[in-house]
UniProtKB/TrEMBL annotation, chain A:
Signal peptide: 1-24
Residue stretches making up the Cytochrome c domain: 49-155
UniProt-listed NCBIfam families: thiosulf_SoxX
MF-aspect GO terms: electron transfer activity; heme binding; metal ion binding
Protein name per the record: Sulfur oxidation c-type cytochrome SoxX
Gene of this entry: soxX
Pfam families xrefs: Cytochrom_C
Keyword entries, A-Z: Heme, Iron, Metal-binding, Signal
Coiled coil: none
TrEMBL record, chain B:
GO molecular function, one term: metal ion binding
Chief localisation class: periplasm
Protein's cellular compartments: Periplasm
Binding residues for substrate: 243
Name of the protein this chain belongs to: SoxAX cytochrome complex subunit A
Residue positions binding heme c 2: 202, 205-206, 247
Cofactor(s) listed: heme
Length: 156, 286
């Protein structure tokens, strides 16, 4: 959690350094996210994430729907955790916040093009996207930050 | 782009998987014997060029209750649709005053094992035909009746009845007819094409992750040998193209039309992937 906050501040500072116009434009757009060595250093919104909101977005079938593929013991009140992805218990011990952000934004930048994990804040998507989802990301920038903050709490 | 190795993590996950007794990551070791008499082939050696060594029926991935329901034709709710299909078979419809039986007689003889070898090349149409398209052709040309609209209740019942005449017969299509091979190729391309906002291909779920749970669903190899299938979730018969469309919709992609070239190519390819499995129609699935 502390790390995420710190990163948020650094992110804010970076954005300010780039120019105030970045603020006027709102969050970093999906095509402008900067990946460096499989990390995304700055908060997408310049704001720290809210872990409690992230916990909800993680479980929400219309948002992250992360449980479809991942087991997460911290959410044992939810039935049926998927097995397609790695169990997320202790995930914050294995990955730094800037790595977790990169994974959620566009996992293909971290795991390679063959991963089945969807990119949640990218427009690099499959063919024939349904009309109501065209040009849109699965999560908003703030929802990504919230989920990253929540993942940061998953320590063993 | 730097790729971080995930191997140690993956191995860790495997170790956890072994310890957890509530997870059934494997298809069951069980035999499907309908009414204690007729044994179905639910596992068989894959045809040459197949990504798996063994092809498995979706039945092996279902719960004990669902498996039992399919094994007992008194319990299988879809047997009502087989009966309804038999009625339609014998019912006169259309301006020519004919029923299916007027031309084909007793389906137990004329349709025995026929459904197991569809889709078939249709030279006049210049494309592969499945049973639905063949039935519609017969209705239009021989009965002078309206073709069925996609997923009309009578279409599903009649196709279920026809496929049921192949119960137990190993599925196998002839790719040497007409241009079947190029349709197979096109279907294969589609099978590996990632679609939709979720960016998933058929292979992402049914090849890379067969045997694993995706939320509450135990992913099978996505074989077609049970179709039309009774789905408990919908309490109704589900046609193959309806299932394809549902899986594609779940990737948040536009759904191709039923019987479109895309879905016919996919049907040819996916039917081939299940070569050698018994026709189980009507299967029962979640």
């Amino acid at each position: 959690m502390r790390d995420t906050c710190k990163n948020g501040l650094i992110g804010a500072a970076l954005l300010m350094a780039v120019g105030t116009s970045a603020w006027a434009a709102g969050p970093v757009g999906p095509n402008d996210v900067k990946f460096e060595d499989a990390t995304v250093k700055a908060s997408l919104t310049g704001q720290p994430g809210d872990a409690a909101a992230g916990r909800k977005a993680f479980a929400d079938k219309k948002l992250g729907n992360c449980l479809a593929c991942h087991k997460n013991s911290e959410m044992s009140e939810q039935l049926f955790h998927g097995e397609v992805g790695t169990p997320l218990d202790g995930v914050a011990d294995r990955w730094k916040p800037e790595e977790l952000r990169a994974i959620v934004v566009n996992s293909k930048q971290v795991f390679g093009p063959d991963t089945v994990m969807p990119g949640f804040y990218t427009l690099e998507v499959g063919t024939h996207v349904a009309k109501n989802f065209q040009g849109q990301t699965i999560l908003t920038a703030q929802q990504v930050e919230d989920i990253v903050a929540y993942l940061g709490t998953l320590k063993e | 782009m730097k790729l971080k190795s995930i191997l140690p993590v993956a191995l860790g996950a495997l170790a956890i998987g072994f310890g957890a007794s509530d997870l059934r990551a494997e298809p069951v070791d069980d035999k499907l014997i309908i009414d204690g008499e007729k044994e179905m082939i639910t596992r068989t050696k894959a045809p040459e060029g197949h990504p798996f060594d063994e092809v498995l029926s979706g039945w092996l991935f279902r719960t004990p209750e669902t498996r039992a329901m399919e094994a007992d034709s008194f319990q299988n709710p879809a047997m009502l649709y087989v009966e309804r299909g038999a009625e339609i078979w014998n019912t006169v419809d259309g301006a020519a005053g004919k029923s299916c039986a007027s031309c084909h007689g007793d389906a137990a003889e004329s349709m025995k094992n026929v459904g197991a070898h569809y889709p078939k090349w249709n030279a006049a149409a210049g494309k592969p035909y499945n049973i639905e398209l063949q039935v519609n052709d017969c209705r239009a040309k021989n009965m002078q009746a309206e073709p069925y609209k996609f997923d009309h209740a009578d279409q599903k019942a009649l196709v279920t009845f026809i496929k049921h005449q192949s119960l137990g017969t190993p599925m196998g299509i002839d790719l040497s007819q007409g241009e079947m091979k190029s349709w197979w190729e096109k279907g294969k391309d589609l099978y590996y094409t990632r679609t939709g906002q979720l960016n998933l291909a058929c292979a992402s779920c049914h090849e890379a992750n067969a045997g694993k749970y995706i939320r509450a669903d135990h992913l099978s190899q996505g074989n077609v040998n049970g179709f039309p299938t009774y789905r408990l979730k919908q309490a109704n018969m589900v046609s193959l193209h309806n299932r394809f469309r549902g899986c594609i919709r779940d990737t948040r992609a536009e759904q191709p039309k039923a019987f479109s070239d895309e879905l016919m190519a996919l049907e040819v390819y996916v039917t081939w992937r299940g070569t050698g499995l018994s026709i189980e129609t009507p299967a029962v699935r979640q």
